Amino acid sequence: ALPISVGCVFASLADANERGSSRRHSVRRLEAFSWANCRNAEPVVIKSLSIKPDPVSIPGFLRASVFASVGVSLQAPLTIHLTLEKEVAGIWVTIPCIEELGSCTYENICQQLDALIPPGQNCPEPLFTYGIPCHCPFKKGDYNLPDSS
């Protein structure tokens, strides 16, 4: 399997009403979203990533755009390593992988994509509109997803 580090995403999570209250709140917000690639020599390099609004309210409406460069053709078997971190009291802490969310390793991603979207079926929007594949192989090249929800 070809291990892929897609990127590292850094975020700071804070209670929406944290000032002056010790109660737990179900509404949270993502403050000061930022991101960085782990290494620029990876097969997949994120060139730009935008999340709006900033701060993001959870739950809430989210728009995102991404421009990524794939340096080599990616085909099965394909493994993706994703690292997510958050800032806690000035220290960056890795968000653990819980129920396939967080800093996870996704094995056999091609098989997982085929299970979600049967081969021969069109990719879901907005991927279809912008010609972004949702099945392996992923050809070498640049992929751009403009501001989408």
TrEMBL record:
Q: Which GO terms describe its biological process?
A: ganglioside catabolic process
Which terms does the record give in the GO molecular function aspect? enzyme activator activity; lipid transporter activity
Q: Which SUPFAM superfamilies match?
A: Ganglioside M2 (gm2) activator
Q: Has keyword Transmembrane?
A: no
Key words, A-Z: Signal
| UniProt-listed Gene3D superfamilies | Ganglioside GM2 activator (2.70.220.10)
All copies of the MD-2-related lipid-recognition domain together span: 33-144
Annotated Gene Ontology cellular component terms:
cytoplasmic side of plasma membrane
Any keyword Ribosomal protein? no
Q: Which Pfam families match?
A: E1_DerP2_DerF2
Name of the molecule in the record: GM2 ganglioside activator protein-like protein
Per the UniProt record, the source organism is Callorhinchus milii (Ghost shark)
Its lineage opens with:
Eukaryota, Metazoa, Chordata, Craniata, Vertebrata
